[in-house]
TrEMBL record:
This is Protein involved in ribonucleotide reduction. NCBIfam families: nrdI. Transmembrane segments: none annotated. InterPro entries: Flavoprotein-like_sf (IPR029039), RNR_NrdI (IPR004465). One of its GO terms (molecular function) is FMN binding. Gene3D superfamilies: 3.40.50.360. It comes from Paenibacillus aquistagni. Coiled coil: none annotated.
Length: 126
């Protein structure tokens, strides 16, 4: 499963570095033609980062799920970018994790990806 991510302060980049999965960082010119899971961060007061928005405006037809890092100090805005993207693109929130995530978060993320892949294969073979 392809993982596409956006990172500003390095927290998301550190998280994906723990995954041992194929991960590609968003760049202004990135175009993708295969289904993917998006990991981003939440910025400001619960907003989606502009680079993530721009990427999705070009590649928004293929995400299967979204995850977001955040800081629990922001209360209801913790990881809110995932909620906003999920609502706009009709995909599930795979998870939210604080800062660069824990080892438990890594395990939970991988389990979520496995479930999506399994469900996607069931749909393809039906």
């Amino acid at each position: 499963m392809r993982i596409i991510f956006d990172s500003k302060t390095g927290n998301v980049k550190r998280f994906v570095g723990k995954l041992d999965m194929e991960c590609t960082q968003i760049t202004p010119e990135l175009e993708i033609e295969v289904p993917y899971i998006l990991i981003t961060y939440t910025t400001g007061f619960g907003q989606t980062p502009q680079m993530t928005k721009d990427f999705l405006s070009r590649n928004g037809r293929l995400p299967l799920a979204v995850a977001s890092s955040g800081n629990m100090n922001w209360g209801n805005n913790y990881g809110r970018a995932a909620n906003l993207i999920a609502e706009q693109y009709g995909v599930p929130v795979l998870m939210k994790f604080e800062l660069s995530g824990t080892q438990k978060d890594v395990v939970r993320f991988k389990q979520g990806v496995d479930q999506i892949v399994y469900t996607d294969r069931k749909v393809d073979t039906a």
